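Look over both lines before class:
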Amino acid sequence: MIGCQRWWFLACLAGLISRPVCGDDWPQWLGPKRDSVWREIGIIERFRQDGPKILWRTPISGGYAGPAVAGGRVYVADFVAEGDTTPNPNKRSDRKGIERLLCLDAKTGQVLWKHEHETTYKISYDYGPRCTPTVSGGKVYALGAEGRLCCLDAKSGDELWSHDFKSDYKVATPMWGFAGHPLVDGQKLICLVGGKGSVVVAFDKDTGKELWRALDAPDPGYCAPSIIEAGGTRQLLIWHPLAVNGLDPETGKVFWSIELKPDYGMSIQIPRKLGDLLFVGGIGMQCVCLKLHPDKPTVDEAWRGDIKTGLFPVNSTPFLEDGILYGCCTKGELRGVKLDSGVRLWETFQPTTNKRPAQSGSGTAFLVKNGDRFFLFSETGDLIIAKLSPAGYEEISRAHLIEPTQNGFGRDVIWSHPAFAEKCVFARNDKEIVCASLAAE
């Protein structure tokens, strides 16, 4: 018996050793846990002089939607438009084209399948879709800029079900398009929709059947759904242009609501939690830090920002660590801010506009934590390795990864969040998606 057990143990061990090691996935916006943390190890400490090794480049068309990586495949949405565009932040377009979801082989960049439909964009900044696909349970969920939500078989690309938010919920497309990245929570797919009583809607992720709807606001805004646990309760966080809200994710019941009205309805960043504090903010000097109750799902205000305190993000969601809030403010200043008081410790434009004039603002870098440092993807197309601390910003290494192809307030930008998976970075512009190795050599 002992000999048989030993044989079985050695056989299992051999199987584990011979099994190919798979890299981590990045199956949705901000990563597996929607927390902007990349947990793979064996990653480079700094770039080579000639930059990271480019594994492949694949042509695609326009869009702000970042890629998702899951099961050895890359999913990215784009828009093949008729004619050129000159974006105007205050004017809607009227532009026909084909919105697509592409599935690529993560190792080669080869297109495995594509799903497409005709649409007409009537939005500002009409480059393409805004939402990173969400991949879960063998399905991929994609939300287009004009509100078409579809569930596809992740392997074949076959459409399983769909909704058109504009016709199904009698809502108008927001000025800058539908941008709330869908969230899978258990059996639910939670989406930002809009309309009376349906700012947020939960669907059955397998059938598309509506499970519940909640909240009223004149516009749904652009802030993706997210979930925290506080006061012994799981809470769904929804920030629409009038207020930050905590809901029961199972029923849509509203636990609490705190007024927060950013300019132009631009509720964008997801609320960030650290300990018993919750931060959320946007342009127009609108930000608030909330104190979460330890025993029940309620909140109190800890502080609000003003001209001298706080942080007012535009395109990117901040990162909270060790009592400090790190994020890009309205003009593009990457700032370090004390979370418990809103006191600003330092600021720099180095990883955002990189000494270029910020023009009307919105300088952007996307922050992702890996180990004891950050990877920052700049709107300039640079990938930066840096350390952030209460003492300041310390840049370790920088490499130019991809060209900025969009126009943002008179300067060339990329406002698309990359994916970090399989010890690689996957980044896109309006012409191509690139995969670069970040594995330690």
